[in-house]
Amino acid sequence: MKEIDNKKNCLNIYNFLELLINNELDEAFIKDYLISMYKRGITAEELYETVIFLRRHSKKVDHGTNFALDTCGTGGDGKKTINISSAVSIVLSTLGYPVLKHGNHSRSGLLGSADIFKEIGIKIDLEGDSAKKYFNKHNFLFLYAPKYQLAMHKVKEIRKRLNHPTIFNYVGPLINPGNPNFQIIGVPNTVSLKMYTETASKFKEN
To answer: Measured between alpha carbons, how far is 131 from 141 in angstroms, rounded to an integer?
Structure first.
């Protein structure tokens, strides 16, 4: 156990993600690493590094427009509330705003965006030309995170078994593969808001 703890503590987030997408970490280690990070607190530097890494290793979607927005939030408030970002995305698209909604199935709450849209008949697994055609027709496109993000796909089952948010909750709004021009981001608490503010500053600096 001491050897595992030492490896966990000396592995920075970039190295962890590299090993993760190359299938060099077992499930127990991944789970332990994510739990440890959650308990000590995720830093803005770790969030920034994770976003940069995932953007480099993600699929992109060509939606064919110069204007779009996303309403993806982090989730993880622990209050079993309604999925506000999904409701807002539908309202905005019906009002004429092109929406590229990035999201996932629920990992720590009752319902994630993917759960809701699948239930009401909105396609959640589109990519390529099919995604572009759907977006042009409906003024709305759901981008299922594990389909576009390799690292998200590799941890989706592990995240289901954790009863708290992980760093992958927080990167969601920042790695939309459609690269929307505008975003409305929901966070669960003031600690998360501070982390996001510090992370945004790093993007401005770099």
So the answer is: 7
Cα–Cα dist 23/9, whole Å? 19
Whether residue 92 contacts residue 71, with contact meaning beta carbons closer than 8 Å, is answered with yes
pLDDT in tens, 93-139: 999 999 999 998 876 556 789 999 999 999 999 999 999 999 999 99
User: Which of 78-82, 126-130, 150-154, 156-160 comes out lowest in average pLDDT?
Assistant: 78-82
How deeply is 190 buried, as exposed, middle or buried, from its count of CB atoms within 10 A (0-12, 13-18, 19+)? Answer: exposed
Which amino acid type is present at position 43?
Answer: T
HSE-CB of 87 using CA atoms within 13 angstroms: 6
Q: Rounded distance, CA 11 to CA 146, Å?
A: 24
Q: Residue 15: CB partners within 8 Å, gap ≥ 6?
A: none
Residue with tokens 């290793």: 57
DSSP designation for 149: B
Predicted model pTM: 0.86
Q: E strands within the chain? A: 69-70, 99-103, 140-144, 182-183
CB 74 within 8 A of CB 165: yes
Closest CA to 172 of 139, 142, 201: 142
Place of tokens 């993000």: 149
As a whole number of angstroms, the distance between CA 2 and CA 56 comes to 33
**Three-state SS at 105:** coil
Hey, is 201 helix, strand or coil?
helix
